[in-house]
Amino acid sequence: MKHPDLYRGEEVVVLGLAKSGVQVAKVLHERGAVVTVNDKKEREQSPEASELETLGISVICGGHPEGLIHPGIKLVVKNPGIPYSVPPVQKALELGIEVVTEVEVAYRLCAAPMIGITGSNGKTTTTTWVGQMLDAAGMKPIVAGNIGTPLCQAAQEATEGNWMVVELSSFQLKGTESFRPKIGCLLNVAETHLDYHGDMKDYVDSKAKIFANQLDSDTAVLNWDDPVCRELVPYVKAELLPFSMTEELVQGVFVSPSYVPDVEDDLERVILYRNSAGQEIEIAPVESISLLGRFNVGNALAASAIAIAAGADPAGLSAVLKSFRGVEHRLEYVADKNGAAYYNNSKATNSKATMMALTSLRRPVVLIAGGLDRGSDYLELLPVLSGRVKGLVALGETKDKLVNVAKLAGLNAVVSVDNGESAAAVLEQAVREASALAEEGDIVLLSPACASWDMFTSYEERGRIFKEAVHNL
Questions:
Q1: Quick check: 315 and 325 in contact, CB under 8 A?
Q2: Residue 381: pLDDT band with limits 50, 70, 90
Q3: Residue 376's pLDDT is what?
Q4: Superfamily of domain 332-471, CATH level 4
């Protein structure tokens, strides 16, 4: 452990009783900190409280009491989703108390080198893929964070012989100070989470923290095809290892021959790695990649670059590129019903993710979309709706906006599902409506382009209900 006694005897407040909050409270308590956990939910909604109190950790539920934050507090660790505008966070900042997320605490306690992976889309797929690549190479990865083991738990179990492979959101990165991954990766940047960040500058600045503390002995992996990623290059101090689908790189991982954006062809392509000496090593044919979609070629390039930066043999990555079966809720095949194929892409919580999924499919699509309204007009979906979608079933807070865009795109088969007795009933009705529109050879795709929180507790719940509804057709 890097700094085992860092918080011994210090007062620490943990805001939020979610999984990460519970784990960070346990770890800090074990390290000798005096921990208080606070959650605005009532006690009966907080079953984790009793477990923490049994350990001797103070838990306060039902609001944020006066005096919770005071000058004697050393550190505040907040759940990533808690906005900075809440009173205890504001009070801590006014008093000059450090406010961080679990990522920062885990980094300070972790002996293993860290790989941090962030981006608007593709994080989970890329993180999982990297874990499998390093495992195949005998490099003892621990996949943690938003997927896998809770980060603080993994951090205290990791040794110098492991690699910590961590998926990171903008919410988590915003709350870091000294966090320095040995390898940092930025996959892409799309307009999303502006209800939390306020504007794109804060969102991009939060993502860019993946590189902020790196040194020239570290590695920065970024998407050379993404203009926002490219704009960060002058500020990156680490060794740069880019990846690209549209350009042959002087050094990095790329596709040859390059893709032409928005143009489909049947050329045979390979993934190549070119090192600093100009030597080229073939990694794998693109057609051998197990996952659908050009965007997953990008994820494969990123995962390969990260694995190479960690020391994996480039020529040894092809087996995992071929065998990887993907991640639940990411363009996940569900079943064939009456000649139509059903896919679950519930993780598509923004328009760009839905556009990427649609451009990956070569058959007519009946799209199920809609969810939490974050202020977008969804007009960016126009080109893909008019070119690839034969029908739309809209639901959730954004259904009227999506119906409007579908009609602008010239779609005649457009159905809006009204709110029902329950969120599950609404989605089940949407599946039935989509099934009625689908013909043999079509694809029915759940790809909401929206977050799930208007109707569901998570995109995972939404995806599971969709799959159950498909199987019940």
A1: no
A2: very high
A3: 86
A4: Mur ligase, C-terminal domain (3.90.190.20)
CA pair distance 450, 346, nearest whole angstrom: 9
DSSP codes of every residue in 136-165: HTT--EEEEESSSB-HHHHHHH--TTSEEE
DSSP class per residue in 325-381: ---TTSSEEEEEETTEEEEE-TT--SHHHHHHHHTT--S-EEEEE-----S---GGG
**Is 0.90 topped by the overall pTM?**
no
DSSP string, 459-472: HHHHHHHHHHHHHT
What are the tens digits of pLDDT across the range 441-462? 999 999 999 999 999 999 999 9
**Chain-centre distance for alpha carbon 174:** 15
Partners of residue 37 on adjacent β-strands: 14, 59
Q: Determine the longest span between alpha carbons in the chain, in angstroms.
A: 67
- Per the annotation, binding residues are 119-125
For residue 407, give Cα distances in angstroms to 315, 336, 379, 391, 421: 49, 28, 11, 10, 28
Domain spans of the chain? 11-100, 107-323, 332-471
Question: Residue length, the chain?
Answer: 473
**Residues contacting residue 340 through CB under 8 Å, at least 6 positions apart:** 366, 435, 438, 439, 440, 441, 442, 443, 444
As its CATH architecture, domain 107-323 has 3-Layer(aba) Sandwich (3.40)
Contact present, 105 and 27 (Cβ < 8 Å): yes
Q: Which residues are annotated as a binding site for ATP?
A: 119-125
Which helix H or strand E contains 291, and what residues bound it? none
Arch. (CATH architecture) of 11-100: 3-Layer(aba) Sandwich (3.40)
- Residue pointed to by tokens 């934050």: 69
114 bridge partner residues? 164
